[in-house]
């Protein structure tokens, strides 16, 4: 569910009074155990300099849960790094934006992630981008807009937490290279990561180890599988892929780097990639 006008191509999104307008839809989704994917952001300008559009959405989230307590929701945890940090109390002290929230809304939002039917997805690119990088590089510009290094590191810790409430969601958004680099305003929001999403997650974790944010022993195969595959499937109540066959990936160092761009088979469409020329693992599937 996209609020109207909050990101690229969302002009036909839902209006500000979505809770009343779609209450029958939400009731039916709750009754039949359907999942609501939320782009948690209010349209327009934030109510103050100390509160982001994402944080201003939290009271709406509170109202939604109060009215439909059994409705299972997926939020973008990448959109709420302050909330993600609040979930982990050891990083709470670093989050100035969280302190600006109304206490009841903020605490309730943390509570629904911890104990209720909501989860949060984290993208590959929000594990390495910051606001400065995203705003300087059109190929790295996306929404939610990445925030500070401390908020990025809170997302890193969530990935390594072994907590099923947080799992991978690519939010990979291909835009023609020309629309990103030839001065179009506004620059379309979105980072194209899909061909290298797994490698970018692992690269971000490697860099976090080098910065001392996490330790090497925290990045295990079991935790990576849970974040990238198992937790999301379980939340959607999909069968375990192991029941159908031993689907595995193999990551190897073969000198591969991220290309500058990728072209369609007929050569008519070119999509730019963030982090070009960066060394990554090569990935192949076993089945």
From TrEMBL:
The keyword Transmembrane helix does not apply. Gene3D superfamilies: Metal-dependent hydrolases. One of its GO terms (cellular component) is cytoplasm. GO terms for molecular function: dihydroorotase activity; metal ion binding. InterPro entries: DHOdimr (IPR004721), Dihydroorotase_CS (IPR002195), Metal_Hydrolase (IPR032466). GO terms for biological process: 'de novo' pyrimidine nucleobase biosynthetic process; 'de novo' UMP biosynthetic process. Keywords: Hydrolase, Metal-binding, Pyrimidine biosynthesis, Zinc. It comes from the Eukaryota. This is Putative dihydroorotase. It comes from Lachnellula willkommii.
